[in-house]
Amino acid sequence: MNHTFRLALLASVSLSLVAGGADAAVRLPHFGKDKAAAPAAAAPAQADAGRSAWPQAASDVAADPAIRFGVLANGMRYAIMKNATPTGQASMRLRFDAGSLMERDEQQGLAHFLEHMAFKGSAHVPADEMVKILERHGLAFGADTNASTSWDETIYKLDLPKADDETVDTTLMLLREAADQLTLSQDAMNGERGVVLSEERARDTPPLRVFMARMDFFLKGQLAPRRMPIGKVDVLKNAPVSLIRDFYSRYYRPDRAVLIAVGDFDVDALEAKIKAKFGDWKPAGPAGPEPDLGVVAKRGTEAKVFVEPGAPTSVQVAWIAPPDLTPDSQAKRRRDLVESLGMAVLNRRLERIARSGEPPFIGAGAFRSNLFHSARVTALAVSAQNDRWKEALTAAEQEQRRVVEFGVRQDELDREIDELRAKLKAAADGQATRRTPALANEIVGTLADREVQTNPAQDLALFEQQVKGLTAAEVSKALKGAFQGQGPLVFMAAPTAIDGGDKALADVFAAAQNAKLTAGEAQVAKTWPYETFGVPGKVVERKEVSDLDAVFVRFANGVRLTVKPTKFREQQILVTARIGDGRLGMPKDRVTAAWAAGSAFPEGGLDQLSAEELDAVLRSKIVGARFALEDDAVAMSGGTRPDDLQTELQLLAAYAVHPGWRPEAFQRTRTYGETLHDQQDATAAGVMGRELPALIRSGDKRWAFPSRQEITASKPEDLKALLQPQLAGPIEVLVVGDTTVEKAIDAVASTFGALPARPDAAPPAAGATVAFPAASAAPSVLTHKGRADQTMGFMAWPTEDFFSDMQRARTLRILGDVLQLRLTDALRIKLGATYSPSVSASSSSIYPRYGFIAASMETPPATLDAFFTETARIAADLRAKPVTDDELKRAKAPAIDSVEKRMQTNEYWLNGLAGAQTDGRRLDALRSAVPALERVSAADVQKAAQTYLRDDKAWKLEVKPAAGQ
Fold it and tell me: What pLDDT was estimated at residue 763?
């Protein structure tokens, strides 16, 4: 697997076939806490004679024995693994060692364009038919059918809802078509230009522009900064298809291809299918050359300020060295482990500073990574307030220099080892039920750097071998070596110019370097003080829900517990405590501190332990404490393993009755929140994501994002005043996963069950009403400060809630899916106006009479009217006549298969069983999920369209460039 202990410098900026949505939620940046959260940027495979050999052939690292690795005579590699989690499903990935680095100047962007063209016709599949074929087999476009292009690779990704022969054979046929059978017509390319240009607009955000400028500064004179996967607009607009054909013939070749297949199938049979389907594939024409990536330039200390309106203020200091291209081996893995443990210590220190009372920065972290096989980059990254960047840079530089000068302490190292050991052990214990799509992605993730794919048990065994006898002195030496190379190079991004520009940045850095330092002080070790909450609660009611394998329990103090033991994932237990009445109990006429709760409440720690101390005390445990404000409760949740279930319940119960309310946690969240409006204003999607939740509910302030002034004026006491009454409300605990009913009851009895009496669920509050906005002939208009060629359109119709008619709600979902198919066909395929039209159908399970179907699209201003016109035309057609049998199948099959896949996850049951003890309709909803979708007919869809997709009910919204943009 990809080494869990490897730290990364920059997230991979790959281009995906389907766009992601905007998220206006407040989340603090995490630089070093979650090492798996920032995957290393993709890097091109090494050009050598061994391209068609698996790396384990020349390594002392043994590959996962559960995987069958093979090589066809034509050089194509394959890896096949039987995996039955979930049952009856499979995932396939076809990866080409071909990305933007292989493009010539006149081809910039065409590797990614070729990825799009794979869906525009081949020898045996007409244009735009591939997606429809997959939809008929239950694969949803985007969720199950996707592709991505990065600097070094193109990957086609298919998640199969069924692993039967028909679905597998169809999938292999389509992948073979992509490999060497594409027609690549000029007309098809011309029709797709608008789609690719829409993707370029959508992805051209301030963070991307900062990334590009930073990479150009760090990798001066090298190829990677000049080969962004999206390419050049002029090429995308004007390049002839012959340039795509040239790239296709030179780089889509069997010796550059790897097929990954993971799923619930017979390995021998699948291997035979792969050999039969791909064995006769022969390259056409000469192979393309390997790119000249350039060499690391000799440089001293340099500083650069990059001004980008809408970008948050940040600084990165980098040391650049030649890339480490040595083959995967136990020795290399140990070097990486030792180095990354040192980085983890530094990141822990930086996080402690960020959590302090008056932190100089919002967040900071250190990372090391091979960047595009072009350079080995060590970077210190800092996120700062606009007017405090000098303090931020100074504090981060001095903490980095302190650890290099004085080294790490043994107690710090032991903590990081303990934490990593717990994670690796949990992964090894749950190895047998790893999920198929994740495994396929994991194997693909090893290919760029030619890593040996190993399993969690192997990783744990090697880890234990490599940390035995490891000393702080050795780690300190490795960490010191990491901060060497060309530079340091200091790069600052800011929304406005800074006084003095580059020289001022260089002077601040030089002054920080000249300051004398002293060694840091060890932290005082604490113990876990929340083992007792009173006399364990007595069970007064127990009810079996035998058909769903769930048990309802009520304790004497009024706390309710729902338990569902499963074997979907070994060693995984999900726990949620739902308390109070959530948004139902919040005021509708004013913005509250709810926007900050998700970060500030858990970061506030407990009354006897800060968040930093919690991390230290629980370092050898697999537990979590996330906080979310839901429509009908505040929810605290975490994932754990059987050995730590008791601690997980203690942690959540402690947050419920002993929260820390530390003001510095709220202040840190507020500081970050003050930077968000500028970031959101920089794109149409950012503005829509911020404003739409309240607008679609007639301005209800419970969903409103605060203004700049409201964020600045917010106080820690506001959050406490909001949440404290909620935490005194009814409690419902849900436990789903690898446990028994009795163990779950015992763990809850000694925690939540031991608390003082709680009220039972209250009747619906006055806040149980939400209104859809009134229709208007002209759209409402919002503005953004980004590109002048970027607009968004949104059109929605009011529907109904979920429980007043569950069958109707399922019909509305299928109606939404049909509308999605029609819009994609009209606006993406035929008109070429957008990258990703989107449709959603929402039927509230909390608010009576509230629901909607909504369509949205990013597009240039010239085609914005076409969005509204086409959407209205399609709605009229859906009202006028039934959908075709093929459309109905292509809508229903992915919807049904999606539910069936999710039913084999703990997450599905955790969410589905919430509130079921007091509302039996939720059990009926679970039981009817698939049958209700199966019953939806073409007549049902037409009737729903006639009832709800009415012109006189439609509400419209536009997000346009502000005047002068």
Answer: 59
The token duo for 391 is 């303090």
8 A C-beta contact, residue 590 and residue 389: no
Token representation of residue 91: 């995932």
The contacts found for 643-646 with CB under 8 angstroms, 24 or more apart, are 645/573, 645/575, 645/735, 645/739, 645/743, 645/744, 645/747, 646/747, 646/750, 646/751
Asked whether 368 and 482 are in contact (CB, 8 A), the reply is yes
Amino acid in the structure at residue 387: D
Nearest to 370 by CA among 331, 322, 416: 322
Distances (CA, A) of 701 to 112, 391, 495, 595, 687: 42, 36, 29, 11, 17
Residue 91 phi, psi dihedral angles, 5° rounding: -135, 140
pLDDT given for residue 12 in this prediction: 30
Helix crossing, 110-117 with 241-251: angle to 10°?
Answer: 90
The tokens 């000799």 sit on which residue? 298
pLDDT category of residue 50 using cuts at 50, 70 and 90 = low
pLDDT, one tens digit per residue, over 882-939 is 999 999 999 999 999 999 999 999 999 999 999 999 999 999 999 999 999 999 999 9
DSSP state, residue 643: G
* Burial of residue 276, with CB atoms counted within 10 A of its CB: 0-12 exposed, 13-18 middle, 19 or more buried: exposed
The pLDDT of residue 965 is above 90: no
pLDDT value at 834 more than 90: no
Instruction: Report whether 98 contacts 251 (CB < 8 A).
Output: yes
Q: How far is CA 462 from CA 207, 337, 786, in A?
A: 38, 11, 49
Report CA-CA distances (Å) from 725 to 657, 702, 729: 11, 16, 7
**CA gap 285, 249 in Å, rounded:** 6
Strands (E), 474-518: 486-494
DSSP-derived pairing of the beta strands 314-321 and 375-383: antiparallel
The pLDDT of residue 831: 77
Spatial neighbors of 433 by CB under 8 A, at least 6 apart, are 85, 567, 568, 569, 570, 572
User: Taking residues 154-183, what's their average pLDDT?
Assistant: 96
| Tokens at 808, concatenated | 């109707």
Q: What values do phi and psi take at 92, rounded to 5?
A: -130, 140
DSSP annotation of 121 reads -
Structure token digits, residue 383 = 């996120």
Q: Residue 19 pLDDT > 60, yes or no? A: no
Q: Decide if pLDDT at 30 tops 50.
A: no
First-last CA distance in the chain: 47
pLDDT above 90: percentage of residues in the chain: 89
CA separation, residue 12 to residues 26, 37, 211, 377, 891 (Å): 22, 11, 10, 14, 32
Distance (Å, whole) CA 550 – CA 244? 55
- Evaluate the CA torsion angle 182, 186, 188, 189 in order and state its sign: positive
pTM tops 0.90, yes or no: yes
- Tell me which residue has tokens 């404000």: 629
In the three-class reduction of DSSP (H, G, I as helix; E, B as strand; rest coil), residue 794 is classed as: strand
Rg (CA), the chain: 28
DSSP for 299-342 reads ---EEEEEE-TTPPPEEEEEEEE----PPP-HHHHHHHHHHHHH
CA nearest to 884, candidates 827, 937, 835, 816: 937
Buried b / exposed e across 906-933, counting CB within 10 Å, b at 16+?
bebbbebbbbbbeeeebbebbeebbebb
In the block, tokens 């298809």 appear at 241
